[in-house]
Amino acid sequence: xxxxxxxxxxxxxxxxxxxSALARYFNAKGIPVAGYDKTETRLTQQLLQEGxxxxxxxxxxxxxxxxxxxxxxxxxxxxxxxxxMKELIYLSNAGFTIQxxxxxxxxITARYKTLAVAGTHGKTTTxxxxxxxxxxxxxxxxxxxxxxxxxxxxxxxxxxxSPWMVVEADEYDRSFHQLKPFSSIITSTDADHLDIYKNxxxxxQAFDEYxxxxxxxGKLILHSSVKVCxxxxxxxxxxxxxxxxxxxxxxxxxxxxKFMMDVQTPTDLHQDVVLGLPGIHNxxxxxxxxxxxxxxGLTTEEIRPALEDFxxxxxxxxxxxxxxxxxxxxxxxxxxxxxxILLDSIRLIYKDTPVYLVFQPHLFSRTQDxxxxxxxxLSKADEVILMPIYPAREEPIEGITSEALSKLMNTKVSVQxxxxxxxxxxxxxxGIILTVGAGDIDRLVEPIRVLLS
Length: 453
Fold this sequence. Notes:
The protein is an alpha/beta fold. Helix content is about 30%, strand content about 25%.
């Protein structure tokens, strides 16, 4: 990458979904890439197979043996990297150029007509759907995705001849302010990341500032609940005949095992639009993609086949097992609003079938901020198993535990470790089983799949 002027790229936290996409990008461009992550995963194994050097031990000053010299090496980090990490301390003291992932992503995407998707939930599936739709048309696109697309089997898409770049715009640590979108979708602005923003007002302000980054010729596509950039031209979308929006989803239903809706656009009514993924949230995601694609000159009729063919994203309403008695779905939902939408969608599709939900809270601070909301949303399931809180970058907060959350819930609930979870699932003979959360609960997916198959 001539504009970055580095011939070696070193990633700290290379196994993260956003970092791994960047690593794959540079590797595809023929630039030597190496990195550290604290945990070996299926994704890091794939990166190794693709020729990227990865290690799992904090090497401290010995890391100099793996990377180039100071002038030729760029070090990429995420905000999740602890400041006391020995490698980071050495590289910083030695004078290496260290940049956050968001800054590097911003520099790369600035060379394209970037179509960005922001929101406190929904952005990964929506951006992946957008990339899938564009890829199915003559426009094509490049993409950095926040999840593994089931259609692409990757979180990176490179199309050298396309001017379009699809990217997920992450609000954490205000990362999305590094982007220069041509157009953008904002799916939601529910309170989240209050460890960064302190209150919802500051979060809304950050989204408002982000929305104003779009190109003068671009479009701002907003969910009906999003109230930012009120003085800017915008297209709105939502589900329901009573909404005053530009793109409206109507008559959501399942017919012949197909999930579909009717779509009212500013110019036409499109009936029986089939979606590859079920769920209210996926219908909303599709509406936003239709709106954005029409804004760049595509027609709904061009878009429809790709909507039906969309296979989704790993860990986003991912149907892992489906047989006569059991449907097992894995989902990344880690915010009360996302859990509400997930369970409402399950009830819409599966009606009166019992729902068993395994949830791993993500972060002590988020659990503390939304303790009552989590209790309310999780109680929509017939039975809930809570795993211990996944700490990620945080230290424990006194009194904030899964046991404390369980006491606020009004459904059958227990707190279990992973081994106990597998024993409990073994005893479920019929119904809907959900594993939900953003921590390392995904490590249970394969054992559960084997157990139920």
